[in-house]
Structures are given as structure tokens and as C-alpha cells.
Prior knowledge:
Blueprint: E1 18-20, E2 23-26, H1 28-40, H2 43-50, H3 54-67, E3 73-76, E4 84-87, H4 89-112
Antiparallel strand pairs: 1-2, 3-4
Amino acid sequence: MARSKPSARLLIRGKLWVEIAGKPALTDAGADLLEQIDGCGSLSESARRLHFSYRRAWLLVSAMNKAWPRPLVVTATGGHKGGGAQITDFGRSVLGSYRDLQLQLDHLLDLAEGSFTINP
């Protein structure tokens, strides 16, 4: 007796990133980092929460800030009370636009699933 394969659900997914002058300016990792910085105000804590090394987080912020016409994040060096990181209003706007576009892309891809068939 022939075995039938279990029915599988087809999913279409895409990955979104923003490029400026041919270089990545905002990726999923960058957006996640911006959200964490906005929530806790600390680059090191944001890195810990995302399981990033501090160096990776710092390089990501540096690259994003260089790519955009205005900084997305401002930082203060440590001192008696420690440093900090803060997402700028411009950074918040860029992040919001990116997350909105992600939702639109997911919705579009969900609609496209109907045009594919798994079983011929």
C-alpha cells in the first residue's frame, strides 16, 4: 500500500532590508536593535537581550548611523552613572516605516500563497 505524504502548508516568506548607495542601511537585526535601545536605553543591555556581542551591536549602530543622512541612535559614554543610548526621533520614524513595510510585505505574500499548489 502506498503511503501518502502528510499534508503540508505552503508558506511564502520574504526578507526585507533597506539599502542606501548599494549598502544595507537597515536590516531585521538593526530594527530589532533599535527597538531594544528604545525600550531600555542601553546598547550593552540591548545587545544582551538580543544575544549579540557588544561589538556587533556597536558596529551595527555605527553602520546605520553612517548610512542614513541623520543618526538613528545617539550614545553617551560611560561615567559615574554610566553611559546610554537613545533612538532619535528620526530613528523612530525610520523604524516605524520599516515595521509597517514588513507587515505590508507579509500580507502581500500571504495573499500570493493561493496562486501556488503543493499537489499537482
